[in-house]
Fold this sequence. Notes:
Elements: E1 11-15, E2 22-26, E3 49-52, E4 58-61, E5 97-103, E6 106-114, E7 120-123, E8 133-135, E9 144-146, E10 152-154, E11 164-166, E12 175-177, E13 183-185, E14 217-222, E15 226-231, E16 236-241, E17 247-252, E18 259-260, E19 274-275, E20 286-287, E21 290-294, E22 298-301, E23 307-320, E24 323-333, E25 341-343, E26 360-362, E27 364-365, E28 372-376, E29 382-387, E30 406-413
Antiparallel strand pairs: 1-2, 3-4, 5-6, 6-7, 8-9, 9-10, 11-12, 12-13, 14-15, 16-17, 17-18, 19-20, 21-23, 22-25, 23-24, 24-30, 25-29, 26-28, 27-30, 28-29
Amino acid sequence: xxxxRINSTGEIKLYDSDDSNYVSLKxxxxxxxxxxxxxxxxxxxxxxxxxxxxxxxxxxxxVSSALDDITTGDAASTLATSAGNxxxxxxxxxxxxxxxxxxxxxxxxxxxxxxxxxxTAIFNHDIKIADDGQIGSASAADAMIISSGGIVTFKDDIxxxxxxxxxSASDADAIAIASDGQLTLTQQLNGTAIDMSGDITGSTxxxxxxxxxxxxxxxxxxxxxxxxLTGQGSTDDITIKNDADTTVLNVATGATDVEVSAGNIxxxxxxxxxxxxxxxxTAANLLADFEEGDWTPTVTTxxxxxxxxxxxxxxxxxxxxxxxxVHCEIKYTSSSSNTGQWGGLPFSLSNExxxxxxxxxxxxxxxxxxxxxxxYITNDTKWYIRAMGTMSGGLQSPSDFSGNRMAFNHTYxxx
Length: 415
């Protein structure tokens, strides 16, 4: 007999030992073409399965456990266990574990766990955790907490290497911290408040807001006021010191006066001064000159030179603005009877009034018979001496006062 035919999807039934149950083989309801399977010529090994070569020849095969034999499927897949761990073990030397997917139509590596760097995780894009989620270590799981508003709270210190930098993708070295802790910023620092215990060093410190009462030490700026310094201390509100830590300028606590504690005030350019008693630059209130010193009174004309060897030549002056106050003590010997001119004043006299001799002043002397006064010469540092009561002429000669002491304190207007 060449074949056994069972028609109409009949079954071949193989019963068990007591004929109560069976297993059967039968054909599909519709077969598009004839199929014949040829059984293996020998039994397989434990755990093997029967497989086909696609041409009807059956054989025993083994289930492979090698991961590289898993092929690409066409549906969702789940890797799950009801108990125990799932371990992914890349056992090759310095091999990575790579998680990939498709972003849109792009085949993208989402995460690489670097086997050559002790498992460093390299993410292709953002890392997101739940609101108020924590990032930490096995010993400090809450070392860093990120709130729903993005505020990051660190439980302990933040340390970076000596000379390390902190920045963004476009400016990686925006903040650099040297080994001695010095902080360097490459960009403008923006914020509402900065509290630092060390020094701040930079090319420009640009404040953009006003200060307020109660600020301990604040620098501010407004468009109308410009630079603002505000302080609060038990003795002084503002103190300016020099390199030797000596206070040179200060404003006492709650006061409005400015005190110069050491040194003097001077202007870097000549002919500058202070406007007194006004709130604007008013020429009449400008005090631009003050000076005091010595001057040497002498006899400049009149013939024979006077002899001061056993006499006196004392002159002192104080100049405030254009007003000059002079003190003079003079004593000499002279035989000249010509009209004399005395001189040596520290500043020339003003010619604001018409005429040649407009500024006068009384003098004291050892001659008791007549009262004399000085007649100053405008645009010059000299004067005549004239007897009181004479409006013209009557100019004295050097010999009139030879051996006599003359003295005066006069104020005149300089040029």
